[in-house]
Amino acid sequence: MDSSNYKHLARVLTVLVVTVPGCATTPNANNGNDDPVEAVNRPVYTFNDGLDNYFIKPIAETYAEYTPEPVREGVTNFFENLTYLNVILNNFLQGKVTRGLSDVGRFAVNSTFGFGGLFDPATAWGIPKHNEDLGQTLGVWGLDELAYLVLPLLGPNSVRDAPDLASSTLLNPLLYISSSVIGPVGVLGIVNKRANLLEQTRLRDEAALDPYVFTREAYRQKRISDIYDGEPPLESLDDFFFEEDDLEQGVLIIE
Amino acid sequence: MIGEMKRVLLLSTLVAGLGAGVSTAAIATDAVGVVDKLHATLLEVMKNAASLGYPGRYQTLEPVTRQSFDFSRIAQVVLGRRNWAGLSEEQQLRFIDTFMRLSTATYAARFDGFNNERFRLVSEETLKEDVHLIKTEIVKASGEAVRLDYVVQVKDDQWLIVNVIADGVSDLALKQADYTSVFRNQGFEALMARMHESIANYEAGR
Questions:
Q1: pTM for the whole thing?
Q2: Closest of B100, B200, B99, B119 to residue B166, by C-alpha
Q3: Residues forming a β-bridge with B165
């Protein structure tokens, strides 16, 4: 076979591998703790955690302490606006036409009247912010997470959600600006995002008995919620209902 | 005959005990009521957070969480039915008690200040005949709202909370994965020790 045939075969195999195994009508939270790559994920998680504790978190904490709130908001707005072309695309891919059009308007308003995304007049004008990515699109199309992944530096992810890393980068306008700017701006983006997550990680560190598992399940729950735009199907709560007879009777707390 | 009398005595003690609990705080008779009561107590604790301190907040919350959550059912779900069945009754009671204290401690530690937040009822939905989903929001001063959904279920004519879903994340699912992992890898006593450690950390303000 010549090279173009190989390419074709590779493309077909990729499509089959991606779409066939995990097809389901409703992505579920996979309560069987199915984590096929756990043996690799845990060391990566530990590595990320160490890097975070010794390096990234202290920087983010200092940043959070000394940066005025409005400035942090501006930075957050700026980077969120940069992701919006990806949000728009995925709205349309999911068939959410009204949302897609609203998001086009939001991007336009914030990029212009918001001075390149630093400000967020769109929200004040009643144009809400949405959260969409390629992983959610695949989820809406019926794909399960396939396998939970912990990526070096990037943290929780999955086989289904990982392709969004590529597509969102390609759709990020920052990529097309001169390379000398990308470095420092990129670092600012990472530090700002970490600073925004300080409270959440603090809560996790307080509550989790097994932080790896805790993070995995929190990630999975959030993805299900995001795929369904905050209203996951009520059946997903069914896993936790037992009929009275299934449970042990007579366990009562006596004061 | 003696056995019968003992059983009646025990039952009446239990009922009296429950009654004592009831008279100090009315038991919610409807699904939304149990959530409303919890929220009202949380607001009270938040507004007086500094003057109460962690111990005061814990003392204020403890009777309310005890009456609002079905800790027996939650404990069985969190550990998983098979694991639960393998425990002795003494272990089960210890687990429920510690789990209840840990839940109250978490609330006491987290709701440690007031910034003009308020709770807002969004809707009530019926999942099954005796199971409702109460959707609420905690609205910050900025107007930003975080979703707090409660799954409440009837037990002995009382509506009790069996799950809290905060911002799309089911607390029950989270705890089940977390606790069964520790149970499986380290055993029951290690799990109990970790729970006690968490409570101690909250008490110490860490």
A1: 0.80
A2: B119
A3: B149, B170
Whether B189 has its CB under 8 Å from any CB of chain A: the answer is no
- CB-based contact A240 B163, cutoff 8 Å: yes
Q: Looking at the complex, does the CB of residue B186 fall below 8 Å from at least one CB of chain A? A: no
Residue of A nearest to B205 (CA): A206
Identify the CA nearest to B170 among candidates B78, B41, B85.
B78
ipTM over 0.85? The verdict is no
B161: helix, strand or coil = strand
How many CA atoms lie less than 13 Å away from B92 in the CB half-sphere?
24
Partners of B109 on chain A (C-beta within 8 Å) are 206
Whether the CB of B94 is below 8 Å from some CB of chain A: the reply is no
Residue (of B98, B67, B77, B79) closest to B160 by Cα position: B67
Please, what's the b/e burial string for B48-86 (b: 16 or more CB within 10 A of its CB; e: otherwise)?
ebeebebeebbebbbebbbbbbbbbbbbbbbbbeebbee
Considering only the beta carbons, identify the residue of A207, A208, A221 that sits closest to B173. Answer: A221
Q: What is the pLDDT of residues A165-216, one digit of tens each?
A: 999 999 999 888 877 888 889 899 999 999 999 988 988 888 899 999 999 9
How many residue pairs from chains A and B have C-beta atoms closer than 8 A?
113
Q: Using CB atoms, pick whichever of A209, A246, A253 lies closest to residue B182.
A: A209
- Spatial distance between the Cα atoms of B18 and A255, rounded to a whole number of angstroms: 8
CA B72, CA A245: separation in Å to the nearest integer?
Answer: 14
Neighbours of A214 (CB within 10 A): 19
Candidates A146, A130, A156, A159; CA nearest to A227 is A130
SS3 at position B146: strand
Do residues B17 and B71 lie in contact, with contact meaning Cβ atoms separated by under 8 Å?
no
